[in-house]
């Protein structure tokens, strides 16, 4: 499994850091953010550093409760700030999201990621870390009842990975090579006037080793492979061509594609609109 590195999610450098050893690591502690599942690691880091006055984001790792994407926090051996008095023995992992009663807030993908991270920690230690919820060591409701009971049950995985839907008769499989969505969970390609996680290509930020512009171009090239008439002087992106800078022309193309694929028509190129271009059959 992939861990989105600090560089990839645009972390601020830590004010300071203290490191421990695998010998001193004895526990793996689950947390939740108790806030919106769309919060980005950078927003959590800003909150921890500016409002709490901590040296860095408090957790060692974070996991999106919806997509299951894993983000590097302080990492394996840097001492965190997630449970007073237990930061040296415990690796703190935060599931980004809240616990609403009677709903499964933590997706199967997020559960698989959490379990994978736990097993990876055991592998690196060469021994078994004690699985804990924050409430086992502090007066808190964290990590919420859903995660806590799952932790205590030993992280059972019940859901199987969702099989790819069968293409309808007469359709062709998606052309080209599938590219994974390059932005962090909850981010999207969208206008420059949007928040930090609206990636326009205007500022040439780097994600997974390439610029946002290069990635946005890949998406439009893929639409071309799917038969969309894309490029300068063509039906779509006619004025500026496929320049990788999100503006009204990409907006119109995204909306048309979302209509065609019966996706949410929000004009933004997030994980669903990205993935549909690479994985959905051409109908
Ligand atoms: Zn906690």
UniProtKB/TrEMBL annotation:
Superkingdom of the source species: Bacteria
Domain Peptidoglycan recognition protein family: 1-138
SMART domains membership: PGRP (SM00701)
GO terms of molecular function: N-acetylmuramoyl-L-alanine amidase activity; zinc ion binding
Biological process according to GO: peptidoglycan catabolic process
Gene3D superfamilies: Peptidoglycan recognition protein-like (3.40.80.10), PGBD-like superfamily/PGBD (1.10.101.10)
Family: Belongs to the N-acetylmuramoyl-L-alanine amidase 2 family.
PANTHER family for this protein: PEPTIDOGLYCAN RECOGNITION PROTEIN, PEPTIDOGLYCAN-RECOGNITION PROTEIN LC-RELATED
Official protein name in the record: N-acetylmuramoyl-L-alanine amidase
Source species of the chain: Micromonospora endophytica
Upper taxonomic lineage: Bacteria, Bacillati, Actinomycetota, Actinomycetes, Micromonosporales
